[in-house]
Design goal:
Helix content: over 70%
Order of helices and strands: HH
Distance between the termini: 102 Å
Number of strands: 0
Strand content: under 5%
Structural class: mainly alpha
Oligomer: single chain
Radius of gyration: 41 Å
Largest sheet: none
């Protein structure tokens, strides 16, 4: 009987040793989880800081762009030169071939005025 009793005690010792290992691993996992949580929190704070910097940089770029555009507009208007907007340039470039063919067909006659339906599509 003592042999069976010793085998039972050895078996319980093995089971208790396995539980000790299991609890040690669970404890390690808990420590790793806490460390990861700390790192994630730090990364989130850094991300918020970077987002604020990006937003501030975007506002600065927008402000500088507006200032530059206003400066260029003032310079253009002070040159007393005829300034054509980009939209007017596109319209002229679209109508120019049509006007050229009309004026070549009737070099001394009045030029045809384009109708709404004769404008080229852009």
């Amino acid at each position: 009987m003592s042999k069976t009793s010793e085998e039972g005690n050895t078996r319980w010792d093995q089971i208790m040793g396995n539980f000790d290992l299991l609890f040690a691993q669970i404890n390690d996992l808990g420590l790793i989880q806490q460390e990861l949580k700390t790192q994630v929190t730090a990364a989130q704070e850094e991300q918020k800081k970077i987002a604020k910097q990006v937003q501030a940089n975007g506002q600065t770029v927008a402000s500088l762009t507006i200032r530059q555009m206003e400066k260029e507009k003032l310079e253009d208007s002070s040159d007393n030169a005829s300034v054509v907007s980009a939209e007017e340039t596109v319209l002229i470039m679209c109508l120019l071939p049509r006007l050229m063919t009309t004026s070549q067909a009737h070099p001394r006659g009045p030029m045809a005025i384009p109708t709404k339906n004769s404008y080229p599509t852009i």
